[in-house]
Write a structure and sequence with these properties.
The protein is mainly alpha-helical and 219 residues long. It contains 6 helices and no strands.
């Protein structure tokens, strides 16, 4: 007696392995700790003002840095947990870095400020320098920063200036529209923002492009 051949259902193909993370665990830990340090500096600086107004660019930049770098940390750790490449945070990190550097530059030049007080030491020195180090030395996506990024960073500053000028505050004497130095000060501020932005982009791109074997990912 012959038995009919039995039908065997084909086994499903095994799922492809998850792509490896593009950063060693030690590097990821260092990136995370550094960005947490930026958040701590930003929070300490703002808290030392005892509730300073967010219409002041120094305080606004500190709060933005605390929120922004917290978001970068969460996004980076989430991508690592899912074994995905470094998330595209270059635009946000560039905006935060430029804003903090504008704060520092304006404070020491146009305003002739010092860093004797705790809030000023953090807001005008430690936090901006920590953000600059993050842009220059931490992560890789900023290497693909686009040439138009500084234009949008300057646009964010312009939005702040519009809100400031229509508010009933007088924090910066050189931003008084009735002052003869208003337009030159405005032009200097815009030029400084653009210059700092393009220096950051040029410096990041000069550190080297991603390996040729990989297609460049959006920043």
């Amino acid at each position: 007696m012959h038995h009919a051949p039995t039908y065997q259902r084909p086994r499903p193909a095994p799922a492809p392995p998850a792509p490896p993370s593009d950063r060693p665990s030690g590097t990821l830990l260092g990136e995370t700790l550094w960005r947490v340090l930026i958040v701590v500096c930003a929070v300490l600086g703002y808290r030392a003002t005892e509730g300073g107004t967010l219409l002041a660019l120094s305080q606004l930049a500190s709060v933005a840095a605390a929120v922004g770098y917290s978001a970068v940390v969460v996004a980076t750790l989430t991508a690592a947990a899912l074994r995905r490449p470094e998330p595209p945070t270059a635009w946000l990190r560039g905006l935060l870095s430029v804003s903090l550097l504008v704060v520092m530059t304006t404070w020491f030049t146009a305003m002739g400020g010092g860093i004797d007080e705790t809030w000023s030491f953090f807001e005008h020195l430690l936090t901006p320098l920590a953000a600059l180090v993050d842009w220059l030395c931490v992560g890789r996506r900023q290497r693909n920063a686009r040439w138009w990024y500084p234009l949008t960073w300057a646009g964010a500053l312009l939005a702040y200036l519009v809100v400031y000028l229509f508010s009933d505050v007088a924090i910066y004497p050189f931003l008084d529209p009735s002052d003869p130095t208003f337009l030159p000060a405005l032009a200097t501020l815009a030029a400084t923002t653009l210059a700092l932005g393009y220096v950051l982009v040029a410096t990041a791109r000069a550190t080297g492009a991603p390996p040729a074997s990989r297609a460049p990912a959006p920043a």
